[in-house]
Amino acid sequence: RRAEFAALRDLPSVTLDGQRIELMVNAGLREDAQALDLVGADGIGLFRTEFQFLVSATLPQREKQQRLYKDVLDAAGDRPVIFRTVDIGGDKALPYMQRDEEELEDNPAMGWRALRLALDRDGLMKAQARALLEAASGKVLHIMFPMVSEPWEYDQAKALVEHQRQWLQSQRKKLPVAIRYGAMLEVPALAEVLDILLPRLDFLSIGTNDLTQFLFAADRAHPRLAERYDWLSIAILRFLARVVSTCHAHEVPVGVCGEMGGRTLEAMALIGLGVRRLSITPASVGPVKAMIRAVEATELERFLKGLLETGVSDIRSQLTAWAEDRDI
Ligand code: PEP
Ligand code: MG
């Protein structure tokens, strides 16, 4: 079916009933930006900036960061690139960042990582903000923060970027034409304060990899647990349904950037929950687009609503049957 997916490259990502679904890709390296054209994606929905830090033997200097961001933006052209600020620490430890013995963690995934670390080591965050601002001069800069757990963390991170913007402005440097700020929803607690957070955001991106590990208290990398909890479980889908409808009520664009969105059946469920933006691995764009072009979003929404209300336990087989009935 590869040739079939390749033929879809230039066809729009629209459901049978005319709902446009944005299909973006997850990336992290300079070379990944080329995948955009290869698969015909709408942009980069998650650029994992920590990759550069992880593959480097020493802390990448600001100029080096800036070059990478600029190259990626150039490759993307008019399409948006959502840069996620560094998600390091915990299991993504940097060899060149010293840690004291007492800083070793029992639960690195829930530890001092991502925005928590970046706000404490704000020199790192300031340099990255400057690199991003300068790389995106004359363009729109999309920036999002990982592992936001409480609204104040988002506020502080945004203030830090704004401070750098003002400084650059005072130096008469050319700035981005606009900055769009977003947060990742990966920590379940954030879902309970969305009414407070959403009015301050330009977009929300749901990171289902971390979110499901925290919802089920199940290590995402643990081989014995990998098959145990289904992304199509009623708990996850009900949780996501609430988040998505809260975003709609606040008119804040919401997308999913975890691996869940790259699996055809899961992506189908997400569309049924009202998700209209997916950021997935490039290889999934073809199969997911083929599915999108074969479903009716409103019918899918009705079906999902019914399943979640009645509390069907095996949503996966129900969705599979639904898809088979329609030759999807
Ligand atoms: C996620 O947690 O779902 C996510 C997209 O981020 P990462 O996989 O990089 O933790
Ligand atoms: Mg994550």
Shape assignment: globular
Residues in β-strands, percent: 5-15%
H-E order? HEHEHHEHHEHEHHEHHEHEHHH
**Uncertain parts:** none
- From the helix content, strand content and strand pairing, which structural class follows? alpha/beta
Q: What compounds sit in this structure? A: phosphoenolpyruvate, magnesium ion
Name some characteristics of this structure:
single chain; 328 residues; alpha/beta; eight-stranded parallel sheet; 15 helices; binds phosphoenolpyruvate; binds magnesium ion; phosphoenolpyruvate--protein phosphotransferase
Structure report:
Its main location: cytoplasm. It comes from Sphingobium ummariense RL-3. Belongs to the PEP-utilizing enzyme family. It is found in: Cytoplasm. This is phosphoenolpyruvate--protein phosphotransferase. The chain has 328 residues and is of the alpha/beta class. The protein contains 15 helices and eight strands. The chain has an eight-stranded parallel beta sheet. Strand 1, helix 2 and strand 2 form a beta-alpha-beta unit. Helix 12 crosses helix 14. The longest helix has 20 residues. It is globular and about 60 Å long. The protein starts with a helix and ends with a helix. The relative contact order is 0.13. The model has no long low-confidence stretch (mean pLDDT 95). Bound molecules: phosphoenolpyruvate and magnesium ion (MG). The site of magnesium ion has 5 residues, from helix 10.
